[in-house]
UniProtKB/TrEMBL annotation:
Stated name of the protein: 5'-nucleotidase
Keywords for the protein's UniProt record, in alphabetical order: Hydrolase, Metal-binding
Organism: Kribbella antiqua
Pfam family, one: SurE
Catalytic activity: a ribonucleoside 5'-phosphate + H2O = a ribonucleoside + phosphate
EC numbers on record: 3.1.3.5
Top enzyme class: hydrolase
Domain Survival protein SurE-like phosphatase/nucleotidase: 8-186
One example GO MF annotation: metal ion binding
Positions of transmembrane segments: none
Length: 254
């Protein structure tokens, strides 16, 4: 199917005015896709797949036109943006979803907390393929590199089975200085940098520690730090084909 026949939802978790989405949307539009941009009004990083308060309330929106593209902000999460678009709240439902460009990488098993990744998984849960794209910097200089990678990934995903999801991390460097593109495993949860601590006022809080030593070879964490674009196909919630728990519980309830 030609790009102009495909409607692509662009969303993120950094907000509809964030520089990442403002770099991503025109790059996808330039490839010929019919672009729809719907994202949170403000920063919703780390919200995962939350859609609290979705049912039975009007959802506040705002719009801005920038560079010939309309950016719509919603008072809600990235997963809510995907859900609203998928049920036709902003016209025709999207054929594909691209989430990003997230400021900062999304690596390892803890990506299930990421609003960027959760938006892509929400799309998959509704039968739509999606790409989540993050850049390895909190203050990026090369948004265009990540936008180019996102466009190529979108082109690849078009003929794949519906519900296909890729999470991609891109080094913050010029396109011609990338080390390459590699399939990457998710760094295990034991690599999490989150630690619990106590604020000076006595309340509990969490902080990030520096990356741990002895990283896992061929993981997204290692390959990204070596200058590679990391590509990891992921799936959302699915059942395990194992009835042992139900059988054991049934025996206990006899």
């Amino acid at each position: 199917m030609a790009p102009e026949q495909l409607r692509v939802l662009i969303t993120n978790d950094d907000g509809y005015q964030a520089p990442g989405i403002r770099a991503l949307a025109p790059a996808i539009a330039e490839l010929g896709y019919d672009v729809l941009v719907v994202a949170p009004l403000d920063d919703q990083s780390g919200v995962g797949s939350a859609r609290a308060g979705m049912v039975g309330r009007p959802i506040r929106t705002a719009t801005e036109d920038f560079g010939g593209i309309t950016y719509t902000g919603i008072d809600g999460t990235p997963a809510l943006a995907v859900t609203l678009a998928s049920v036709g709240a902003f016209g025709a439902a999207p054929d594909l979803v691209v989430s990003g460009i997230n400021r900062g990488h999304n690596v390892g098993v803890p990506i299930f907390h990421s609003g960027t990744v959760a938006a892509a998984l929400t799309a998959a849960g509704q039968g739509t393929s999606a790409v989540a794209v993050s850049i390895d910097s909190e203050d990026p200089s090369y948004w265009g590199t990540a936008a180019t990678v996102a466009g190529e990934a979108l082109t690849w995903i078009v003929p794949e089975p519906t519900g296909t999801v890729l999470t991609i991390n891109v080094p913050d460097r010029p396109l011609d200085q990338l080390a390459g593109v590699r399939h990457a495993s998710l760094a295990p949860i034991k690599r999490s940098r989150i630690v619990g601590t106590t604020a000076p006022t006595g309340e509990p809080m969490i902080e990030l520690e520096p990356p741990a030593a002895n990283p896992v070879a061929d993981s997204d964490e290692v390959l990204l730090s070596s200058g590679f674009v990391t590509v990891t196909p992921i799936i959302g919630i699915r059942e395990v084909n194992d009835d042992s728990a139900a059988t054991a519980l049934a025996k206990r309830l006899r």
